[in-house]
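subagent[fold] <- orchestrator: predict structure for attached chain, return tokens only, no commentary.
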Amino acid sequence: MEVRTQREASERVMTTGTALAEKPVLRREVDLRDPVAAWLESRCEKGCVADEIDAGAGIADLVATYGRTASERANSYRYRYVSLTSRNEVELFRFLVKARTELELREWAPWGWKSLRENAMAPLLDRGLIRCSSGKYEIVEKIPDPGTNITAVELKLRDWRRAVGQAARYHLFAHEVYIALPMAAAEKSITAAGELGIGVLGIDDDHIVRELAAAVPNQPMDDSSRRLAAERSVATGWATVKRVGGSSLR
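subagent[fold] -> orchestrator:
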């Protein structure tokens, strides 16, 4: 994905969504959701944008997982029931890079044997993602990692300080982190956000998204959290009930 300089970012204006005859006033966080989601989608041809993703650092309003693998995982029926649903499953799947005996698993178990067995092994066995063969546990089929490039966004209507504080936590799993606010509040946040490598998106009354400051790309602080965020993002494409990022309160 293209990485832009600060000057390029400040000059970049993205018009998102289909123009409406009368655009609603930005009164709630959820009113920011569609313009920002469209901006995220415009950054890369392949990928998916998901709402309300919890990867152990609070709930991010929007998470974009970019790349061909993410797009395939989110849209291919083949992967409908193939997903890692918890941090425990992510770490076990990584440990099973080669077949392991029960003794090896007991010695490794980072949360204790009972927790490993009940919260990771049993669910993966039930879903047919791992199996026990000849006394060893092994992966049935490798699940392609969809999370090579993740962007997380925190939506806020007015409180830019709180937005910066919450967004800073998303460095745990995301390569890039942004906050998105109506233009007046967004402009006030640029300095504080920039000190933490957080990008700033301003949304005007016409629902045009302007990138006021680019996020500083970094490697996520925790790789298991990164993988979990990506897994949960692509899984939302198959969810029967979907939540929308941002608060509905005024």
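orchestrator: received. Logging for downstream: The longest strand covers residues 47-54. Residues 116 and 189 are 43 Å apart (CA to CA).
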